From TrEMBL:
This is DUF3137 domain-containing protein. The chain crosses the membrane at residues 51-68. Keywords: Membrane, Transmembrane, Transmembrane helix.
Length: 318
């Protein structure tokens, strides 16, 4: 059984199998060329609006003899005048990101809004935070699995807690409870979690390496043990090696599977409106990383909490 799971995980993350197809690359390059052609026009219009706003402000200040109040207000006006540039940049991103990921079924893009699954994610307490900030979000269907990839920053007060991406996968069969896999907590974190997860049981995964890096807890330990014997643990292991920026955290709640993946850069990072997009440098890296996440999503979507050892029941598994 173990050998089969290892082969499944290895196949899912085979770099050749995950390479973009020729048709995908052709479509991406066409989208990049269209973006670069439109970029100059959008940039010129945005800058004309910006300088027009600043010109009107300068006239107003001169008329009012440029008092101290107007000087102070100028900082706010400068930020306001940048709005056309920011809006033009976002308008271009609204167009090109869905085109880049057009090989994904039912692909959709949004920016800045809290996604519908945020409440389920918050309930798992994969990190200790009191505010969040969602950036770019891509949703779609990959080989029958519904997923979402969201840029996410978490803070506790003014202290950054997490920066990276949140992968959300819809499970075809609901997990009967909740399961988390987090970085082994420090003493202060353990004290706080006594009050938040006091009724959750620590569940060994059976992997010394994963249990050394993670602490798994669940309110249904028998089902959690079954899940942790499957391909999901292999996916977690792979992501931990692929994204060495920090510990990848896992959460299951009913039909939602979450993987919180730290990164050192914005996942959907593209150059500013003043710079052309280079397909190799800026886009293909992003596609390759997304394909790895989609392969993970496919594995996560296939997990079965009823896959117990022969002769074992949920009661005996505990």
């Amino acid at each position: 059984m173990e050998t089969t799971q290892e082969n499944t995980a290895r196949t899912a993350f085979d770099e050749i199998a995950l390479a973009p197809s020729g048709e995908t690359l052709a479509n991406v390059r066409a989208a990049v060329e269209e973006y670069n052609a439109a970029r100059l026009l959008h940039q010129a219009r945005a800058h004309r609006r910006k300088w027009g706003m600043l010109g009107l402000y300068a006239v107003a200040c001169a008329t009012a003899f440029f008092s101290l109040d107007e000087q102070i207000a100028g900082f706010g006006v400068l930020a306001w005048a940048q709005h056309p540039v920011r809006r033009a940049r976002q308008a271009l991103r609204d167009r090109i990101l869905p085109q880049i990921f057009g090989f994904v079924g039912a692909v959709a893009y949004s920016h800045g809004a809290r996604p519908p699954f945020s409440h389920a994610f918050d309930s798992l307490k994969l990190a200790l935070y009191d505010s969040d900030d969602y950036g770019d979000i891509i949703t779609g269907v990959y080989e029958g699995t519904n997923f979402a990839v969201a840029e996410l920053s978490l803070r506790h007060g003014k202290t950054p807690v997490f920066r990276g991406v949140l992968l959300c996968v819809h499970l075809s069969k609901a997990f009967p409870g909740r399961l988390i896999g987090i970085e082994r907590p420090s003493l202060p974190e353990r004290f706080v979690r006594v009050f938040t997860l006091d009724h959750w049981t620590v569940v060994p995964s059976g992997s010394p390496e994963r249990d050394g890096a993670h602490e798994f807890r669940s309110d249904n330990p028998a089902a959690a043990k079954a899940v942790l014997r499957g391909s999901l643990l292999k996916a977690l292991q792979h992501l931990s090696e692929t994204w060495p920026a920090g510990t990848v955290r896992l959460g299951l709640a009913s039909n939602d599977c979450f993987l919180l993946i730290p990164t050192k850069h914005d996942f959907f990072e593209l150059p500013d409106i003043g710079e052309e997009i280079d397909c190799e440098q800026h886009v293909l890296r992003m596609i390759r990383e997304l394909l790895v996440l989609l392969a993970t999503a496919k594995l996560a979507g296939q997990i079965g909490w009823e896959e117990l050892l022969p002769g074992e029941t949920l009661e005996s598994a505990d």
